[in-house]
Amino acid sequence: MTTYTTILGVETDPGKPVKSDLAKRWTDNPIAMFEGDASAIAAGVQVRRPALLDAIINRVKLDTTSASQAYSVGASNTTVFTLNPYSFLPGVTGANANLQFANAAAVDTPKVQINNPTGGTITGTLWWRYINA
């Protein structure tokens, strides 16, 4: 990965010579910004969303992970699970379980709840995917 190196204002003042190390930073810094180099992020020059074309990020380019958790919900009870930030596609396996979002508007702490409307205990697995951000 290319490293971002700050270009100082005095290096580009009128009358200053263009040296090879300055020219190298002019070519390397944009690459480092697009690669998401930590030094570019620390300098506050990472690529921002408006710079990207619409629909440029797709399922192939998103770094996603699957997660799951077993559940057991007693009669007429509810269990709430906090998912990973940027979670999507939650689902359940198990009979008679109702799944609903408990905190749907929160990106950083999405929650789902499993309701048991039956008379007995229900068991199953809650599963979801999330973006590694």
Question: What layout of secondary structure does this protein have?
Answer:
Elements: H1 20-35, H2 38-42, E1 64-73, E2 78-82, E3 87-93, E4 98-101, E5 111-115, E6 122-131
Antiparallel strand pairs: 1-6, 2-5, 3-6, 4-5
Structure commentary:
The chain is α+β, with helices and mostly antiparallel strands. The mean pLDDT is 84. The two termini are 19 Å apart. Strands 1-6-3 form a 3-stranded antiparallel β-sheet, with no helix packed on it. A 3-stranded antiparallel β-sheet has the order 2-5-4, with no helix packed on it. It is rod-shaped and about 85 Å long. 16% of the residues lie in helices and 31% in strands. The longest helix is centred in the first third of the chain and has 16 residues, at 20-35. The chain has 2 helices and 6 strands.
